[in-house]
Amino acid sequence: xxxxxxxxRIGMFVHLDLGWMDHPFPLNRFKISTHSQIxxxxxxxxxxxxxxxxxxxxxxxxxxxxxxxxxxxxVEPHAPQALARQQAAEALRIRRQSLARQNADLAxxxxxxxSASGAWKQVAxxxxxxxxxxxxxxxxxxxxxxxxxxSARESNIRLLSETAGDSNALHALNVTVISLLLGRALQLDDxxxxxxxxxxxxxxxxKQTLPDRLRWHSDKFTAVxxxxxxxxxxxxxxxxxxxxxxxxxxxxxxxxxxxxDGKGYPxxxxxxxxxxxxRVVALVNAYDNLCNPGNAALAATxxxxxxMMFAQIKPRFDGACLTAFIRxxxxxxPGSVVQLSDERFALVVSVNASRPLRxxxxxxxxxxxxxxALILDLQNEPALGIRRSLHPRHLSRPVLxxxxxxxxxxxxxxxxxxxxxxxxxxxxxxxxxxxxx
Length: 437
Hints:
Elements: E1 2-4, E2 13-15, E3 29-31, H1 35-42, E4 48-51, H2 79-126, H3 131-150, E5 156-158, H4 170-185, H5 190-201, H6 223-230, H7 232-243, H8 247-255, H9 276-291, H10 302-311, H11 319-329, E6 337-340, E7 345-352, E8 360-363, E9 376-377, E10 386-390, H12 397-403
Antiparallel strand pairs: 1-4, 2-3, 2-4, 5-7, 6-7, 6-10, 7-8, 8-9
Helix pairs in contact: 2-3, 3-4, 3-5, 3-7, 4-5, 4-9, 5-8, 5-9, 7-8, 8-9
C-alpha cells in the first residue's frame, strides 16, 4: 500500500524504493520505531512511501497512535548529522558483509566445479587405456553429485563467474548436472538416477576417437564428415562396454541423439523405445546444444532455447520430461538478460525451482560499481517483476559491459549455506569452450 509521507506513524513497516546510497538507513525495509526516522524519511523528499500492512503494528490510519508532532522534534545539537553518519556507516558495514558472503559462496561453488571438471578430465584420459579405472572414477564422481543433490531441500539454480574449471569439461558437466536435477524433479528412483548420471557424464565419450575438428557439430559438415560425427555414438557404446558399464548406462549413451518422434539417430528410436534415463539426457543434451553450439555466434539465450524447445521442436521430446524441465528451469533461467517492471535492466543469476517467476538478479545501477553489485531477490520485492527477456545485443554498451552476460552457459550445483542447495553456474566463454552435441 502506498501512503503519503505525512501519514507515516510509528509501528508502520515501510519499504523505500531507493538505492542503498540514496537513504541513511541500514536497510531499505524496516519498521518505524522513532519520530526521528519519520523526519529522516520526510527529508528524502518522497511524496509517497510503500507500507507493508502485514508486517506493520498499525494500519494505514494509525488512529490508535498519537499523531506525529507538526513542529520540529527536539534533539540535541548535531544529533541528526551524527545519527545519519552512524546509520551510513552501519549500512556500509552490512553491505560489505553481504558482498563478502556473496563472494565466499561464489568461490566455494567454483572450487566444487573445478574439482568435478578435473575428475571428468581424468575419466576422459583413462577411458581408452584403462576402462575399469575410468568407470570407477566416473562412479565416484556421480555418487558424490547424487549425494550432494539428495541433501538439498530445494533447487537453487545460480549463475557464477566465467573463470571456473576447464572449458573442455563444460558440455559433459552441463548435461550431467541438469539431467540429475531433472531426474530428481521427475522423482525417479536411485537406480535410474545413477544411469542418468553415468550416462550423461559419458554420453560423448566416443568423441575421443574423432579428430578435434569433428568433435563439435557443424551444419557445414560434408556427408562424409556428418557420417563420421554420428559414429561417435556407436564408438561410445563400445568404449562403455569395455568399461563394464551397466545396461541402463549404455542405453543412455546409445540413445542420447534419439528423439521422441523417431527422427533421431543412430537407430531412429521413438519415445517408447527409449529408456526413461535416455529421454531425460537426450532432452538436456539438446538444450545445451542450443545454448552452447560449436559456433558461439549462433547461441540461443537460455530463455530463447526454452521457447524454441516448447514452440518449435516440441515433438522431439518426452512431454512429461519437457514440462518438468521448463518448470524446473523457470521462464527466465539464469543467464537471461531481462528488463524489470521499473524499466531497469538486469541479469538473472539465480532461480529457485519452487518459485521460478521470482528469480534473483543483478540490476544495472550507475551508482554502484559492477564488482560491488549485490544480488536483488525478487521474492522480497512484491512490487517489482520482470517485464520481458532481451537478447544481449539489444543492450547499450554501458549496460552490456556492466551486466556482462555470458557467451557460454555452464551449470553446476553445490550444497548451499542456505536451506536451498542446488546451483546453476555460468562459466567460461573462451574460444575453446564450445560444447559438443
